[in-house]
Input
Amino acid sequence: MKTYKIPEASIIRLSVYSRYLNQLDNKGVLTISSGEIAEGVGVSPAQVRKDLAYFGEFGTRGVGYNVKDLNRHMMKILGLNKAWKIVIVGAGNLGKALSFYKGFHERGLSVVGLFDKNTDLIGEMVGNNRVMCIGELEQFVREEQVDIGVIAVPSKYAQETADVLVEAGIKAILNFAPKALVDVPNTVELRNVDLAVNLEILTFNMGMKEE
Amino acid sequence: MKTYKIPEASIIRLSVYSRYLNQLDNKGVLTISSGEIAEGVGVSPAQVRKDLAYFGEFGTRGVGYNVKDLNRHMMKILGLNKAWKIVIVGAGNLGKALSFYKGFHERGLSVVGLFDKNTDLIGEMVGNNRVMCIGELEQFVREEQVDIGVIAVPSKYAQETADVLVEAGIKAILNFAPKALVDVPNTVELRNVDLAVNLEILTFNMGMKEE
DNA sequence: GACTGTGAAGCCATTCACAGCT
DNA sequence: AGCTGTGAATGGCTTCACAGTC
Output
């Protein structure tokens, strides 16, 4: 590998391409061109080829790409060739929704634990997971060697939840609380997913249209 | 206003700044500099000033910005000076989580209806909303002049849900189904929020680190 | 002295256009 | 002929650095 400077936008698209290839593979499609991928996901063919070119040469000139083969490469690139373990903290509606989210299991990401501080929820079964007490979180993450922590608690508890996860040696955090976490060591991968932002981009654009 | 070419990245940051200012305002902070905003949300001071400069001059040289004032301007820019009406389609865990999501109400976005096709859910109270039958969706959106439709149904029903919303004259759609909607007229604002992508960026980065 | 507002420079991502294979 | 892979060109976003203002 020659470079670490790959645009994040490319990774996002790679993830989308990969899911599209999964669909095609399930339909029995064997071969596909950059133009067809482009059409299917709504980008330009040159973009598809450039994104792939960051990682190697996967196609055959004059022919295209082998669907299964390309997807296997992309899964590997995305780090999905191993089974990552996830815990979700917060067993409210969002935490539950994420536990049931098919997109994770389909991609080899398994939710191994679900935690909450609310005693009414502790013990409840959510899918295959029994909701555990947040006091058990640190030990669980450490013993089970959990890789990823998903934060689905109210904003005011987000930072302290992150602290516990970091302390327990988690490798990555996905934060859904509507408040960007700032205080996380940069050895831990962090992404903030802000649901409100997405709505506000819509209201911004609607506002623009009316004038 | 001189230009329509404002980077989407700027809008995203604006939304984040605005929420940060809300917090400060609630704490009684009166004045703030671009450097302090930058620190609070994790970007550069020049970036903050440039983002604001797209829309006007809101500060005082040598002093900084008035918190209340700047936030009022930002809310207006983001289109949040009016009360948008939202319906959520899909009353599963994700739909419920979104209904309860404080980030919306705090920003003047009100969820006025919640719909599902599952008869077990219809009639159930979720916060202030009674779950309605999806058959009532089109008429409701039309009569109530709903602005935004949030799609929280399984992928396979996402496109048909979008079609009903479009037919009823919705202005914007926020899609949470893990499959990009492609077939929506471009008079309707559309955003796809893909939860799986966010996790895959984490696994990609973790994979990179190990080599 | 402190901090904003902004043209210009620098940097990064996307698109173009064509050489290289099959 | 058809499609990939890629250097070069373009376009867009971010950072710099400083003039302007309090």
